Automatic annotation (TrEMBL):
SUPFAM superfamilies: Metallo-dependent hydrolases. This is Dipeptidase. It comes from the Bacteria. CDD domains: rDP_like (cd01301). It holds the Pfam family Peptidase_M19. The lineage of its organism: Bacteria, Pseudomonadati, Pseudomonadota, Alphaproteobacteria, Hyphomicrobiales. It comes from Roseibium litorale. InterPro entries: Metal_Hydrolase, Pept_M19.
Length: 354
């Protein structure tokens, strides 16, 4: 079998999944191929998943029974989270990443620079870049931001789809505009500046539209939405409007294509029979609006309902084939698969301008 093309992906919830499963009947090894979830090391190898932003997301009500099916309509899933609880839970996810790295004997590496990501991809080890999805773990004085940065945090979404001290998120609504509430708070503006200072990429996914424009006004870095699709193709509040895409293009930023079926489909339905061509459609639209250098992948592995044809990380080569079948050239496919992500991370870490 030919070695699959490497993919560096903008979003997965694998650390959360492994922390939630720890000590339960679902507990599994990262090094054994499983049919559960979307990511483990054997399936990364099979699909060419060479690395990505590994999100640390703190669910509302962290004490609840997570073996029950997740109901996105349950308001309890959007309750505000206490900072101490969030920081503690985030520590558990960092600990999980570090234990996996240690046990991997060089096959998994927590990367702190783009250079380290490049070396990892070259060496065939999985490059893990730590990301925060919803900054509840960070206090208003940003002491935890310093600590987390020292632990390897390199990107951060100020808000998930619930309110916190920094901003307001978008609901999982369809059809709906992402313009649904107030923008960043003063503390949120200060967070963006503190992240700029540390070279931590600000992620716009889950932020509402006023918050998006506040970041655009405040941040010195390219505008990046790690796992969001095109609103013109699927009118979910989670997707990006044409005006937002224009701002991303102007700043040399990036949008990562999310594989969640309800964010892909024109009808917004949770339908797993969604064909890979629907992902291709978003990709083509985003390339048209953003240009070839500003589109990446933001799978949402382990946090979404995937098209059956993709199945899990091992199915990535089928998606890249779907791009080929649609006439995308090899250079464009490589850019979408990993080059554009590394490029925008590099510009965020090494410059203080756009
Ligand atoms: Zn998300």
């Amino acid at each position: 079998m030919n070695k699959p093309l490497p993919v560096f992906d903008g979003h997965n919830d694998t650390l959360l999944k492994f922390v939630l499963e720890k000590g339960t009947a679902q507990e599994r090894s990262f090094f054994t191929k499983s049919g559960a979830g979307h990511i483990d090391l054997p399936r990364c190898r099979e699909g060419g998943l060479a690395g990505g932003l590994f999100a640390m997301f703190v669910p509302s009500n962290t004490g609840q029974d997570f073996s029950r099916p997740y109901n996105p309509a349950d308001p309890a899933n959007y309750a505000e989270v206490d900072q101490a609880v969030a920081l503690n839970f985030t520590s558990a996810m960092i600990a999980m990443a570090r234990k996996i790295e240690r046990a991997s004997e060089g096959q998994v590496r927590i990367c702190r620079t783009v250079q380290e990501i490049r070396e990892s991809i070259e060496a065939g080890s999985l490059a893990v870049s730590l990301h925060i999805e919803g900054a509840e773990a960070i206090d208003k004085d940003f002491n935890a931001l310093e600590t987390l940065h020292a632990a390897g945090l390199r990107s951060l979404g100020p808000v998930w789809s619930r309110k916190n001290i920094f901003a307001d998120g978008v609901p999982m609504a369809f059809p709906s505009s992402p313009d649904n509430g107030p923008g960043l708070t003063d503390t949120g503006v200060a967070l963006v500046k503190a992240c700029n200072e540390l070279g931590i990429l600000i992620d716009l996914s889950h932020l509402n539209e006023k918050g998006f424009w506040d970041v655009a006004r405040t941040s010195r870095h390219p505008l990046v939405a790690s796992h969001s699709n095109a609103h013109a193709v699927c009118a979910s509040a989670r997707n990006l409007t044409d005006r937002q895409l224009e701002a991303i293009r102007e700043t040399g930023g990036l949008a990562g294509i999310n594989f969640h079926v309800a964010f892909l489909r024109e009808d917004g339905r949770h339908d797993r029979t969604t064909p890979l061509e629907t992902i291709v459609r978003h990709a083509a639209y985003l390339v048209e609006k953003l240009g070839e250098n500003h589109v990446g992948l933001g799978s949402d592995f382990d946090g979404c309902v995937l098209p059956l044809d993709l199945k899990d990380a091992s199915g990535l080569p089928r998606l890249l084939d779907a791009f080929r079948n649609a006439g995308f050239g090899e250079e464009l496919i490589e850019k979408i698969a990993w080059r554009n992500w590394l490029d925008v991370l590099e510009r965020t870490q090494t410059t203080d301008g756009r």
